[in-house]
Automatic annotation (TrEMBL):
It is found in: Nucleus. SMART domains: HLH (SM00353). It comes from the Eukaryota. Keywords: DNA-binding, Nucleus, Transcription, Transcription regulation. It comes from Desmophyllum pertusum. This is Transcription factor AP4. Residues 246-256 have a biased composition (Polar residues). The lineage of its organism: Eukaryota, Metazoa, Cnidaria, Anthozoa, Hexacorallia. Residues 44-95 form the BHLH domain. The keyword Cell division does not apply. Pfam families: HLH.
């Protein structure tokens, strides 16, 4: 019985130890998850803070840019933020001074309206000049203006005529150049045509001269044969005669002449 009791207690201890280990593992995993969640929250907060800071700086820069456009400054001048703030404060102070000065003038005019009335009466008096006097003063001016306009028109017309004459002279010179070029081109063309015609005539005359010389040589050979053999001139005929008879009598005459020459 005692042995069985001890065995049961040992088993229970082992089971309790295993349960403790499992609980410890669960606690560790839970702690790791908690740490990860905290890190994520920190990252998110940091990103949110960075984005807010970025937006704030962008709004500040845009505000300084607007102030720089409002204040009077020279183009291309580089101003720091402190300089922009200082010049803006000075500009606002100057505007306030102008405002107070204008308000003081307004109150002064309201309190003392007589100088304004006197100025208006003087203006009315100056406007009430007689019309005839104004016309007499304006007539010579109008005549002078008319003369000036006429002189200007004459000058403009003279300039226009001179420009037209220059253009006509240039056109004439250009036409003369073109005419000379055309004449030179036509002369070159005519010379080339003459050269081509001479070359053709020379090429046609060469074979005719060669034929005439060959015929003369044949005639001299035939006459020499006649003189050596002492035959009658009727028996031996020149090739020119044979050619003429061949053209008139046909192939029979050509055969006879060939036979005679062979004999």
């Amino acid at each position: 019985m005692e042995m069985s009791f001890y065995a049961r207690t040992a088993d229970k201890r082992k089971s309790f130890e295993m349960d403790d280990e499992l609980y410890d593992d669960d606690d560790c995993s839970f702690k790791v998850e908690v740490v990860d969640n905290r890190e994520r929250e920190r990252k998110l907060r940091r990103e949110i803070a960075n984005s807010n800071e970025r937006r704030r700086m962008q709004s500040i820069n845009s505000g300084f840019q607007a102030l720089r456009l409002l204040i009077p400054h020279s183009e291309g001048e580089k101003l720091s933020k402190a300089a922009i703030l200082q010049q803006t404060a000075e500009y606002i102070f100057a505007l306030e001074q102008d405002k107070t000065r204008l308000l003081q003038q307004k109150h002064h005019f309201k309190a003392n309206p007589e100088p304004v009335r006197s100025r208006r009466s003087e203006q009315h008096r100056f406007k009430a000049i007689p019309a005839e006097k104004a016309k007499t003063e304006q007539e010579p001016r109008a005549q002078e203006n008319i003369k000036d306009d006429e002189n200007n028109n004459v000058l403009h017309s003279d300039d226009y005529v001179e420009e037209i004459q220059k253009e006509l002279i240039e056109l004439r010179c250009q036409l003369e150049r073109e005419r000379r070029l055309r004449i030179s081109v036509e002369e070159k063309k005519r010379l080339l045509e003459l050269d081509v015609a001479d070359a053709k005539s020379k090429s046609n005359d060469k074979p005719q001269k060669a034929l005439a010389t060959s015929r003369q040589n044949l005639d001299t050979i035939v006459q020499a044969i006649k003189h050596l053999e002492g035959e009658k001139p009727e028996l031996i005929e020149t090739p020119t005669k044979c050619k003429a008879e061949a053209s008139t009598n046909g192939p029979s005459c050509s055969e006879n002449t060939s036979r005679r020459l062979i004999v």
